[in-house]
């Protein structure tokens, strides 16, 4: 297999709505952090994607709240729990670092809205500080998100990343959802295990990673290479594109290789989080 190295590698292709399958077209620790100035001007700092960082992270539901309570690095502000949920926490989590306020389910629903599946738990906490871009280890496996804005998708990607032991998720300060609420619920506790690294310019961050020896693999439904042809790599950056418009041209130019998932069935597409899972399984170094 021949891959083009350098910041202009990776040819044109679409990676948008209906093309998250990357076949033929068919359809931490996060924290709100201020972005600093880096060597290439990419700007980086550990931080939660989206938002201005002034308010607390709001977590609800069993997995997001219980994982946060187990995480000694998560500073807690306020915990609301129904009587049954508080009993379950005592049984499964043990001694809590914060005393819950016992409330009726409607009190939590009133804070979150009728569509939130809160399971009797609501937590306000401080965002978690993530690592600085320049401190990422040389053998890291990273996910880079190019303007993925749907909090359900980003949350599901975080859950996938936590399952595969991804080192960190690289995203931009703008054009990304706040790491709270719906995203945290979709991540199902994964926010406590996969840090975010927030950069101002994704392309420049990818260039710097390439200079450090990372293989940068962008996903594209019309890419000439399949994941099987690429094979496991380390250090590795898997670059995922946005809903609707896909990887931006500049982002594609900063990838060493564009790859696709080879499908055999009638459906030639997947949700981006499912595609991320398949890609990580195919490209993660074997233990």
Automatic annotation (TrEMBL):
GO terms for cellular component: cytosol. Residues 58-131 form the RNA 2-O ribose methyltransferase substrate binding domain. Residues 8-26, 35-54 have a biased composition (Gly residues). It comes from Methylobacterium terricola. The keyword Transmembrane helix does not apply. Residues 1-58 are annotated as: Disordered. This is 23S rRNA (Guanosine(2251)-2'-O)-methyltransferase RlmB. GO terms for molecular function: RNA binding; RNA methyltransferase activity. GO terms for biological process: methylation; RNA processing. The keyword Cytoplasm does not apply. Keywords: Methyltransferase, Transferase.
């Amino acid at each position: 297999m021949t891959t083009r190295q350098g910041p202009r590698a990776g040819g044109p292709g679409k990676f948008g709505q209906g093309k998250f399958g990357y076949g033929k077209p068919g359809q931490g620790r996060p924290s709100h952090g201020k972005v600093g100035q880096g060597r290439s001007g990419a700007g980086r700092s550990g931080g939660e994607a989206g938002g201005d960082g002034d308010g607390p992270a709001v977590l609800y539901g069993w997995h997001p709240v219980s994982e946060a309570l187990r995480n000694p690095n998560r500073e807690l502000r306020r915990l609301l729990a129904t009587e049954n949920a508080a009993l379950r926490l005592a049984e499964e989590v043990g001694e809590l670092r914060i005393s819950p306020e016992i409330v009726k389910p409607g009190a939590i629903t009133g804070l979150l809205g009728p569509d939130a599946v809160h399971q009797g738990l609501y937590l306000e906490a401080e965002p978690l500080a993530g690592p600085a871009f320049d401190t990422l280890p040389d053998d890291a496996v990273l996910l880079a998100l190019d303007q993925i804005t749907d909090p359900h998708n980003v949350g599901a990607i975080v859950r996938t990343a936590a399952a595969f032991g991804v080192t960190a998720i690289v995203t931009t300060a703008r054009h990304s959802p706040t790491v709270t609420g719906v995203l945290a619920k979709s991540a199902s506790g994964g926010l406590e295990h996969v840090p975010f690294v927030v950069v101002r310019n994704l392309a420049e961050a990818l260039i710097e990673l390439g200079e450090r020896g990372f293989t940068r693999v962008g996903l594209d439904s019309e890419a000439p290479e399949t994941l099987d042809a690429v094979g496991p790599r380390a250090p590795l950056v898997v670059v995922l594109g946005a809903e609707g418009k896909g990887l931006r041209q500049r982002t594609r130019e900063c990838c060493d290789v564009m790859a696709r998932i080879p499908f055999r069935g009638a459906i030639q597409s997947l949700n981006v989080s499912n595609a991320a899972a398949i890609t990580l399984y195919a490209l993660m170094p074997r233990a």
